[in-house]
Amino acid sequence: MLRRGPKSYLRRGPTREPYPTVVIVCEGKKTEPAYFEGLKIAYGLSNANIRVTPADGSDPMSVVAFAENELQNGYDRS
Q: Is 37 inside any structural domain?
């Protein structure tokens, strides 16, 4: 009978690539985040990979500037 060595019981490393992290930036503070949070629940999407955040301002340029700033914080898509 062959015996296993101690190294054969070690866990293998990850075999899949991690999912990309996505941030959704929206203008509103209540309606839009609730809508996207509902989509995450309805489709069973992971909270670790999707973050819904309202922007600081309501004009389009401030929403885009906020999204660009969030993209610099390590997100794969925005």
A: yes
